[in-house]
Structure formats: structure tokens, C-alpha cells
Amino acid sequence: MPFMPPALVNHGVPLFLKQLVEVLHGEHLTTEREHSDTEPTPAHTDIGKAAALHGAEMLRLGHSIDQVVHEYGDVCQTVTDLAVEKKVAISIDEFRTLNRCLDNAIADAVASHAEARRLIVGRAAESTAVDMQRLLDEHARLVGVALHAFGAIRTGNVGLRGPTGNLLHQFLEDLRTLPQRTLGGNAPVPTETQRPVVR
Predict the structure, then answer these.
(1) What's the Cα-to-Cα distance from 196 to each of 139, 164, 169, 184, 189, rounded to whole Å?
(2) How many Å apart are CA 117 and CA 197, to the nearest integer?
(3) Distance from the CA of 3 to the CA of which of 92, 108, 143, 179 falls in 20 to 30 A?
(4) Which of 2, 99, 13, 17 is nearest to 58 (CA)?
(5) Model confidence pLDDT, tens digit, residues 63-122
(6) Using an 8 Å Cβ cutoff, are 100 and 45 in contact?
(7) How do the domains of the chain map onto residue ranges?
(8) What CA–CA distance (Å, rounded) separates 125 from 127?
(9) pLDDT per residue over 158-184, tens digit each?
(10) pTM of the model
(11) What distance in Å separates the CA atoms of residue 46 and residue 73, rounded to the nearest whole number?
């Protein structure tokens, strides 16, 4: 059996199979059968709760929703193949129970995977929005100071090569590196040939 992380063993397919056996055993002790329709999420049964944990864990490990669905979907094929191989008959009621439990497990795992992804995307969007606002605020400040320095130089009362000119050059340099300083590795710094030239 291939290696599986402990989290996946604790609430993945192995646990589902154990819970399925318990459900089948319980239904053998009664003539009543649960309704075959899949009940809605959030998770409402032990199988659903375990599947929900599994769906979120699968996302954390980098697996897609398709992989979650296929993992549970393979259970049905494996069970039927094993029954044929061992020449064990599966009753209609048992097959319905298997499908119902799989249906619920898939629904809860997928819903949990999707919700966990939504939260991750939401947090990333919030972080990006904060970074962008910081960039815009700093950009407005630097441009404002640079315009004031340029306005002073344009009057002719101060020279381009004096302190005001140096200030203008410094703030233009700060503008050039602003995206990299604000957004970190997500933004490129313009090359040397793109730097403003002061004559």
C-alpha cells in the first residue's frame, strides 16, 4: 500500500471504508433504510464530517476538486471489482447504501474543499488590497513631493544641480523602486536604462 500522510489516513478513504462497514452493519440490524437522496452540506454524519476534513486537507496538500471526486469515486469500482474477484454477492440494498454514503462523502468533501479555497483566495485578495493601498498612498506622497521640487526648480530661483534638484532626483529614484519595495518579489524593478536622467 502506498504511503499516505497520517491526516489522509485519519479521515480519508480508509476511514470512509471503516464507517461504511459500520453503516452497513447497522442497516442489517433494522428493516428500515435511509432515504437514498443525498442530504445537503454542511456535514451532518460521521462520514460527512470526516469527508469535510478530508476535502480541506486535500486542498492543503495541493489536490484539485477533481482528484477529491476521483478518490472517492474509485471506491465504488474497487468494491465491485473485489466482490467479483472474491465471488461475494452485493445486495441491492447494500449497493444503494454504498452509493448513498459515497454521494454524501463526495458532496461534503467537495463543499469543504471549495469553502477552504474560497477562504484562501479571500485572504489573498485582502492582503493584495492592503498592499495596493499602501503602494497608492506612497506613490501619491512621492509624486507630490517631486512635483513641488520640480515647481521650485521651474521658477528659476533654484538650480537643477542644487539641493532641490538632488531632492527631486531622490524622489524619482524612490518612485522607480516603489513597486519592489511595497510589493516585494511580486514587482520588477526597472533596469538601469529606465532610470530618469537628470541633466
Answers:
(1) 16, 16, 8, 22, 13
(2) 47
(3) 108
(4) 13
(5) 888 888 888 888 888 888 888 888 888 888 888 888 888 888 888 888 888 888 888 888
(6) no
(7) 6-124, 128-194
(8) 5
(9) 777 788 888 888 888 888 888 877 776
(10) 0.54
(11) 19
